[in-house]
Amino acid sequence: MDSHRLLVFRQIARTGSIAGAARALGWTQPAVSQHLRLLERQAGLPLVLRRPRGVRLTEAGQALLRHADAVAARLQAAADEMSALAQLEGGTVRLATFPSAGATLVPAAMSLLATRHPALDVRLLQAEPPEALELVVAGEADLAVTFAHAGQRPAEPSGLVSVPVGTDPVRLVLPRGHAGARAGDVDLRSLAAERWIAGCARCTAYLEEVCGTAGFAPDVRHGSDDYVVVQSLIAHGLGVGLLPRLALDAFRDPRVAVRDVPGLRPRTIQVTHHREAARTPAVRAAVRAVLDAAADRSAGRRDPGQGRAADSAHSAASSS
Amino acid sequence: MDSHRLLVFRQIARTGSIAGAARALGWTQPAVSQHLRLLERQAGLPLVLRRPRGVRLTEAGQALLRHADAVAARLQAAADEMSALAQLEGGTVRLATFPSAGATLVPAAMSLLATRHPALDVRLLQAEPPEALELVVAGEADLAVTFAHAGQRPAEPSGLVSVPVGTDPVRLVLPRGHAGARAGDVDLRSLAAERWIAGCARCTAYLEEVCGTAGFAPDVRHGSDDYVVVQSLIAHGLGVGLLPRLALDAFRDPRVAVRDVPGLRPRTIQVTHHREAARTPAVRAAVRAVLDAAADRSAGRRDPGQGRAADSAHSAASSS
DNA sequence: GCCCGGACCCAAGAAACGCTTATGGCTCGC
DNA sequence: GCGAGCCATAAGCGTTTCTTGGGTCCGGGC
């Protein structure tokens, strides 16, 4: 039951004649006639009675017309839905993100996205970078917002591509009364004797690496990937730690002091998706929203250095 | 949104890969690949993500799959319904018939049809021959069972074809006590002085014609196309009349006598339909049932002369 | 570490489908 | 009776569509 012929048959029924259907379709009469003949052969039944002024549907023709109308309606619905998805007048996009971005950058991006495409259903999933990438690979998320500390290679599964979003400086967090809090910047080597609070597994590895470069092995006493917990431990004088600025933007314990450590390279933020998903409008729009949100944050902080990184990444993605 | 491509896409979704869809369809892989590419171009969106082990549907692809499934189901339903109609496992056939056949021949035919094709919906419409043909022309009936008196030309609208079903002798009806009822056969000329009861318009014309041939003009006092009324009038001695055997088979007033009139040619019964409707299984089956019912009636009466006419007509129709 | 197999894409050629042109039959209306 | 409208058939050609024969990428096994 060829559906193309079915739609031709629908025109025959509409106009009441083969010649009329041909006119409606912009074809010649024999073209429609042949379609009808093949359709009748497939059906094994006459579908119309040929009469002097045109044709009249047989019972089988009327039955077939009902099906043809249903098929045409469904095809139209499919085209409409595709158009809506292409115009972002619908659809879903799922972002997997790590906590500190999920409390700062990503909500801002989601807000931008909601403003630009009100009908788009944006959903957030929280996951640390490795798990976030897994979600994308497994198809349970469309985008992963991840970070990588300087010197760490982000394990990027094949088939995925990453767009740099910007950098996130890593800062030293001390108890307010700590001696180091009196200076503006702090040299890491001066903290060789401190007790340390570590973060997630990758952050701990980073901490050990930078301390090793500074010439000592950190005395890690506690660990938590929750930046509220880390700051609380520090506030109680149980150690010092490194936290990225996004985490400190998300939550800042008033009992801690924050200082820069010269030479500490920032972690990089990136957004990752399937290589081919770049052609999906929802993914493109979401990537752009993340980049724009990052640029807005940088501009709001009046920090041209950060702004450049985000801006350049943004324009690169926009042109792709 | 080409539906053929949609069905190919459905196979891609089913098998999870383009190559798998190609195997399922008995095609090569590039053929399916090209269909998918054109479908994605039409949709304006990627429908699948190409991954090492095959493809994964995007959100748009999943949406399209739902439509594709619906289209496929509707096409299958259409094919099924066409098949059912072709096998006479459904459908309707409407017979228009004149009263005396509607009380005798046609119910027998309908019963045959119901036995042979229990799912076929057979419907009867009563109409005198000219109106019955109009119903067929107007598409309100599929078949017309009509009669024509000898010498009358059945006005057959163009586009219709008629199949002879058999003949129906016209008999003389007299009051039981009438002098003519004493003889076996009756000469029409002996009834020149009688008062006559006429039937329908065409029957009245026939009466006047055969009386004219016999040399007199009938004194028509009453008229009714209802054979019960006619017999009642005759039974009450209000006149004599001619009635075809089918009418007398349908109803026989015990107070009347029936005699043959030698030389009175029988009326002919025929079944008429659109020329092209001969290819419609329901119409073919109905025509055959009418012919078979007529043959059964002839055989049941042990009247080979009648049986021959019906049989020959039957075999002619069967071979068409 | 390298090769092999599976899956996909692209380009070009061949087969097939589909529309057009040309012609004829039929019915209706002037 | 003849033209106009509708439909059918047959032949021709163009476009679509499938195949063939390349190539790339990724993952698994020796």
Automatic annotation (TrEMBL), chains A, B:
SUPFAM superfamilies in the record? Periplasmic binding protein-like II, Winged helix' DNA-binding domain
Composition bias, kind Low complexity: at what positions?
309-320
Q: Report the PROSITE patterns cross-referenced here.
A: HTH_LYSR
Q: Which keywords appear in this protein's UniProt record, sorted alphabetically?
A: DNA-binding, Transcription, Transcription regulation
Q: Which residues form the HTH lysR-type domain?
A: 1-58
- Region of interest called Disordered, as start-end residue ranges on this chain: 295-320
Please verify whether the record's keywords include DNA-binding: yes
Keyword Ligase in the entry? The reply is no
Composition-biased stretches, type Basic and acidic residues, lie in: 295-305
Q: Which family does it belong to?
A: Belongs to the LysR transcriptional regulatory family.
Listed PANTHER family: LYSR SUBSTRATE-BINDING, TRANSCRIPTIONAL DUAL REGULATOR HCAR-RELATED
Q: What name has this protein been given in UniProt? A: LysR family transcriptional regulator
